[in-house]
Design goal:
alpha/beta; Metallo-beta-lactamase, Chain A; 12 strands; about 20% strand
Length: about 300
Amino acid sequence: MPLPFALDHINLWLIEDDSAWALVDTGVPDRTSRDLWRGVLAGPMAGRPLSRLIVTHFHPDHMGLAAWLIRRFPIAMETTQAEWLYGRMLSLDSGEAFGEASLRFYRGAGFPEDLLALAVERGNAYGARIKHIPATCSRLREGDVLRLGAHRWRVIVGEGHAPEMACLWCEEQNVLISGDQILPSISPNVSVWPSEPEADPLRLFLGSLEKFRRLPPDCLVLPSHGRPFFGLHERIDALQQHHRDRLGETAGACRRPITAYDLLTTLFPRKLDNHQLFFAIGESLAHLHYLLGKGRLVRETDSVGVHWFRQV
């Protein structure tokens, strides 16, 4: 399915479930995606209904059309509790407190006045795009086993990119549906966000990658973006090395006191559009918070609320 971002597509997965289909993830809630879904329902799905809707995590390209799909079929959205709650919260949050928290967060990150104004104008970008998250869900937990057609799929929870991402592992077929946790050629965005300003998502991301190292190295990985691939263990190694390299760059940049905004030009030397900018500042903070948690940096806050990081 196409996406209106620089990352221009999402892979969705249909699994035969007896005389119906189980679906993993949904696409974004726009006219293009809905029109494509109508074609899929009438064409490749051959008129067979959806029996289950499994959502890996709350991001718009994964959960955005869940409400639309469950209105068409008498099924529940199945996802982890944290993903449902995050999506539900952000889709409904239009209060002043959201704007105040965002302004405080991005001021702390070192945004200049023009970017603070952009943050205020941007507001709740999730809620602006996603108006409807299902009011109920069927909860998935780590280790749950789902019977989909002839095969069993076990839930493996990934962290860091999202709070509690539900990946699916089928030992019988040697197939992993990895969501955004493990992508073939890029690292998923691992960010600190205004809703949890003291978070350490990079620690969670690197730690949860080790769960997937227990799977066979020759399994087929079905990611949410990019092509299916083999070489799971090599890809885990590459992701861990990528972030080790970035942590080294971050530590080096902190030889003098810097803000998260100062770090952007080190970690992201290319020109960023406004959409990418907010992901990049979150990722800069994730690397700073990881080193802060390891005791390699200290953080000091000045009189206007800007956070400065430096080596110990």
